[in-house]
Write a structure and sequence with these properties.
Blueprint lengths: L16 E13 L3 H14 L2 H14 L3 E9 L5 E8 L6 E3 L5 E4 L5 E10 L6 E13 L8 H7 L4 E9 L2 E2 L5 E2 L14 H4 L2 E9 L4 E8 L19 H18 L1
Antiparallel strand pairs: 1-7, 1-8, 2-3, 3-6, 4-5, 6-7, 8-12, 9-10, 11-12
Length: about 260
């Protein structure tokens, strides 16, 4: 027997799949082993799975998605992951299934947000890195690019990779196939000017005919006070060398990651 849970009518649903990948790196300088350990403790607290879940919830609010279920995980010794299953049919939609009556509150659980954090304080040079991957995969009318402004404000971003891909097709009532339901020139169209102005190095790839876009950003020569874990180290004799190592690491990530 076919149950109501096994068969839900999806006629007329937008079947396009849109995938936004937001990958960021934040850097810091640890002059001592104590600072290295303090950095890891700070990251574990500030970006725990519980805190990352709140960020994912805010993303859902911005893109007008309905949260269906959530899963979080903290790792030992470092790192966290979250998964948010979401729907773009807010409030439910009643459908008749196999003559059983209007008894199905339809939700489309084909959209999700996953996040993973990667703190790294193992560099022998004392260069600490915090990386976050956020993937927003949706179908329906949701446009995940609308959450970019918030993502930049939710994290400290020295190097950023943003990838966006639209796949599949949906049909109009006439039968015509549509391969993209929103048109734009660049991912940077969704990033406020005051945010873009913080980044000196930019690469922008726009393959609109293939529904593929990528933007890479890296901050310029920001002062050492932005990376020190202890403000007193501004007079440290090794500071200039550490800053050179930090900038080298940032350039490597920007060009090769």
């Amino acid at each position: 027997m076919v149950t109501m849970q096994e068969k839900v009518k999806l006629s007329g649903f937008n079947n396009l799949t849109k995938i936004l990948s937001f990958n960021l790196y934040d850097f810091a300088i640890a002059m001592t082993e104590e600072q290295r350990q303090a950095y890891i403790a700070y990251i574990d607290e500030r970006y725990s799975a519980e805190r990352i879940r709140e960020i994912a919830r805010k993303v859902c609010e911005i893109i007008e998605a309905n949260i269906l279920t959530e899963c979080i995980q903290n790792y030992d010794p470092v790192g966290a992951s979250t998964m948010t299953l979401m729907s773009d049919v807010k409030g439910g939609k009643w459908e008749t299934v196999d003559g059983l009556g209007a008894a199905v509150a339809m939700h489309l659980d084909k959209s999700h947000i996953t996040t993973h954090t990667y703190p790294d304080a193992s560099s022998p040079d004392g260069i600490c890195t915090f990386r976050v991957d956020i993937d927003v995969a949706t179908c329906g009318d949701i446009i995940p690019l609308r959450a970019l402004d918030y993502m930049f404000h939710a994290f400290e971003c020295d190097v950023v990779y943003i990838d966006y891909v639209v796949r599949g097709y949906t049909r109009l009532e006439s039968g015509k196939k549509i391969y993209n339901d929103h048109y734009f020139n660049s991912i940077q169209d969704f990033i406020p000017r005051e945010v873009l102005d913080r980044y000196v190095y930019r690469q922008d790839v726009n393959l609109a005919n293939d529904n593929i876009w990528q933007t890479k950003l890296m901050v310029g020569n920001v002062g050492p006070e932005n990376y020190l874990l202890d403000a007193k180290d501004i007079e440290h004799p090794d500071l200039e060398q550490k800053m050179q190592q930090l900038r080298l690491e940032m350039r490597e990530v920007f060009h090769l990651a």
